[in-house]
Every structure is written in C-alpha cells, then in structure tokens.
C-alpha cells in the first residue's frame, strides 16, 4: 500500500484550521459557507483523515476567494511520514472550557498534537451520519447544561432530574457512536429485535441499552423513519423516561 505524500497536499489540516479561525467561524459555519461536507471538514481538521484532493482544493480555493492568504506550513512529523498512518491532529482553543459555554472562535490558538487512531467504519455515508448525530447531541447537551437547577420540597425538581438524565443519555449515545466509528459495539451488536420500533422484551441490560439507542443505530445506517422519530421526540418528562425505563 502506497503512503500518502504529505508534502504535496493542496492544504494541511493546520492551515485549514488557521483559515477558519481567521474568519471566526465554527466548523458548521465554514461548511455551510463553502458548501462542503461538514463531516469531511471535521475529520480533516482533527488530523486523522486525509480527504480527496478535490475536497482539499475546493476548501483552499474557498478561503482564498474570501481573501485569506495561505503561508507555507510545516510538514507533519517524521514519524507520521515514515509509517504513513499517523496524522497531525489539532486541539483548537481552550480545551478546559466546559461544554455549553460561549467560545471566541476568532481569538483561538491551536496546540498541535499527534493522534494514533484509525476510523474503522469504511462506509462514508454511515460515517458522516454518525458524526452528524454526535454534533447534534453535543448541541442538545450544551443547551441542557445551561438550564438553571430547580428544587422541590426535599430534593431536585422533577424537570431538573429529567434534564440531567437526558444529558446523560445523549452523552452515552455519543459514546456508543464514537465506539461505532472505531469498530466496536457496546454490549455486542444490537439484535434485529432491539432495533425494531416495537421492541421485544429485553433479557439483558445490554438489550435495555440497545433499545434506548436503537434509533441512533438506525439513523447512522440511513433509516429515514428513525430520523423522523428522533426529530419528533419530545423532551423526557421524568428521570426514568429519559433513560428508557418507563
């Protein structure tokens, strides 16, 4: 298998992040403005994926058309070039800032790191849908974490408990989706019954988890009905409902 020639790429992930930060855009805004796939932009900027040359050329041309001037960027590290399967990744901005807080994209600085990882999911469509689900869940969690705590007579109010459980559910779902990207399945591969809209009675706690996350599995696989069900899903009214126990 031939190795990637990093030096001949039209654009590096570091240069792409620098250009986006220059305009003060989050990744979703850059994808929207450029018309390029968000999941490809995310994976490229993270440093663990080299997209096709057409994507790289289009991204570079987009930033240049907007007036950004690229400079020569350092080549990736020697180890990455030698083994051909480690790419330079970047963590942009303040990684200590808690999720849900506003971020200043224009003033972010990058700290380059090297990540040793390969995404095992080879289907581009499924991979893109999984990444979109992860981002959607992160946005919902961010909104939930901004809600003030309410108290009842003796304890937290029921809606606060429900919101907390909903945030935990979404974070657990993202854990499952990340594992799926890297070729792992929590609790084994979900059974056909677990993925049905009307599910059979669970026999293990793994079945309970698969039942709860069934629509996420189905949406990642391209099921449009499951996608509509997720859109129509109302916020949980109780702690147990949020965790699929009632």
What is the radius of gyration computed over CA atoms, rounded to a whole number of angstroms? Answer: 21 Å
Strand neighbour order, sheet with most strands: 1-2
Oligomer: single chain
Q: How many domains, in number, for the residues?
A: 2
Number of helical segments with 4 or more residues: 11
By secondary-structure content and strand pairing, the structural class works out as mainly alpha
Low-pLDDT runs: 1-6, 73-116
* Shape, principal axes of CA atoms: globular
- State the major sheet: 2 strands, antiparallel
Average pLDDT, all residues:
76
Distance between the termini: 52 Å
Using DSSP, what is the number of strands? 2
**Share of residues in strands:** under 5%
The residue fraction in helices comes out at 40-55%
Spell out the helices and strands N to C: HHHHHEEHHHHHH
């Amino acid at each position: 298998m031939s190795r990637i020639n990093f030096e001949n790429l039209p654009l590096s992930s570091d240069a792409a992040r620098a250009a986006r930060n220059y305009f003060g855009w989050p990744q979703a805004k850059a994808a929207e403005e450029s018309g390029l796939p968000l999941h490809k932009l995310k994976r490229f900027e993270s440093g663990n994926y080299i997209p096709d040359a057409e994507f790289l050329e289009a991204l570079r041309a987009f930033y240049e058309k907007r007036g950004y001037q690229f400079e020569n960027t350092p080549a990736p590290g020697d180890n990455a070039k030698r083994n051909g399967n480690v790419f330079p990744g970047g963590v942009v901005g303040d990684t200590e800032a808690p999720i849900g807080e506003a971020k200043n994209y224009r003033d972010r600085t990058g700290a380059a790191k090297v990540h040793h990882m390969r995404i095992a999911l080879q289907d581009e469509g499924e991979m893109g849908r999984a990444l979109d689900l992860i981002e959607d869940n992160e946005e919902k969690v961010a909104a939930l974490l901004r809600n003030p705590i309410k108290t009842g007579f003796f304890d937290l109010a029921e809606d606060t408990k429900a919101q907390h459980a909903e945030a935990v559910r979404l974070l657990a779902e993202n854990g499952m989706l990340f594992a799926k990207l890297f070729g792992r399945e929590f609790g084994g591969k979900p059974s056909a019954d677990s993925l049905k809209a009307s599910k059979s009675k669970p026999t293990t706690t793994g079945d309970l988890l698969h039942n709860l996350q069934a629509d996420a599995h189905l949406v990642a696989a391209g099921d449009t009905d499951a996608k509509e069900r997720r859109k129509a899903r109302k916020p949980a009214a109780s702690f147990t409902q949020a965790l699929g126990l009632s």
